[in-house]
């Protein structure tokens, strides 16, 4: 997929070419507007589709893995009402998962974050505030958010997380610069459960299992009872199909911590 720097370069070349041609032929201003619209469309869509790898490279699956492994991941926790239930289910089915945690949640519920690690799961950075305006933060503010979260996780667990998942899956040049400066590795997904929507448990489970293959990364959220119930059915499905959930760093063969 075309990356943001490439699109910018192509756009610049196109504008320069039109300006040169405009010396010999009159170029309609609509042509410039059309180019601007195309650039803006790519940039906006790319910002909201992390799997495009448009603004920054992210890891979404591992098709080369030889074993029948997948990675279940959870965003937005830890949550006092639901994360403990998720941990109990994972332990019951001997499954491992990865939790991309929000800094202020770890600050409030550090005991749960510690239990995530104690149970052999991976913990990652999912911003401090998970603000709806995160996509509009400047580079320095993004850096401060990510640093604050990593510091809190290290204070609670003793581990310095190097895996990052963008809030809402949104990426942009500011986030890209921050991630690069902090030397974080961005982890996406290739199966989005949509468990935070009004879809039923049955629909969500079918959305996951109907196309599940080895090497896939599944996105869930440890923030609702519905997800807990979907998780148990998913773990049963994996068991019946001789599949195993592992941590995302194991699936991708990368380091989770500094």
From TrEMBL:
Cross-referenced SUPFAM superfamilies: Glycoside hydrolase/deacetylase (SSF88713)
InterPro entries reported for this sequence: Glyco_hydro/deAcase_b/a-brl, NODB_dom, Polysacc_deacetylase_ArnD
GO BP annotations listed: carbohydrate metabolic process
Domain NodB homology: 68-249
Keywords of this entry: Hydrolase, Membrane, Transmembrane, Transmembrane helix
Signal peptide: none
Catalytic EC class: hydrolase
Statement: the UniProt record of this protein carries the keyword Heme: no
EC number(s) on file: 3.5.1.104
Any one GO molecular-function label of the UniProt entry: hydrolase activity, acting on carbon-nitrogen (but not peptide) bonds
Transmembrane segments: 6-25, 32-52
Listed PANTHER family: GLYCOSYL TRANSFERASE-RELATED (PTHR10587)
Protein name: Peptidoglycan-N-acetylglucosamine deacetylase
Gene (UniProt): pgdA
């Amino acid at each position: 997929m075309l990356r943001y720097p490439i699109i910018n370069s192509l756009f610049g070349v196109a504008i320069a070419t039109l300006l040169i041609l405009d010396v010999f032929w009159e170029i309609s201003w609509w042509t410039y507007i059309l180019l601007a619209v195309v650039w803006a469309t790519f940039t906006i869509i790319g910002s909201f589709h992390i799997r495009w790898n448009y603004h920054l490279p992210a890891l979404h699956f591992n098709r080369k893995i030889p074993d029948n492994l997948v990675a279940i991941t959870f965003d937005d926790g830890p949550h006092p009402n639901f994360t403990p239930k998720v941990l109990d289910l994972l332990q019951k089915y001997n499954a491992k998962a990865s939790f991309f945690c929000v800094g202020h949640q770890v600050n409030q519920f550090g005991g749960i974050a510690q239990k995530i690690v104690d149970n052999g799961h991976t913990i990652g950075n999912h911003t401090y505030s998970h603000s709806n305006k995160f996509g509009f933060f400047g580079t320095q503010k993004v850096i401060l958010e990510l640093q604050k979260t990593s510091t809190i996780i290290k204070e609670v667990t003793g581990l310095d997380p190097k895996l990052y998942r963008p809030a809402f899956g949104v990426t942009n040049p500011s986030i890209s610069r921050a991630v690069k400066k902090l030397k974080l590795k961005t982890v996406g997904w290739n199966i989005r459960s949509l468990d935070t929507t009004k879809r039923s448990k049955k629909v969500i489970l079918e959305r996951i299992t109907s196309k599940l293959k080895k090497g896939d990364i599944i996105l869930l959220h440890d923030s609702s009872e519905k997800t807990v119930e979907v998780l148990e059915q998913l773990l049963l499905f994996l068991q019946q199909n001789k599949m195993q959930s592992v941590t995302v760093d194991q699936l991708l063969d990368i380091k989770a911590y500094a």
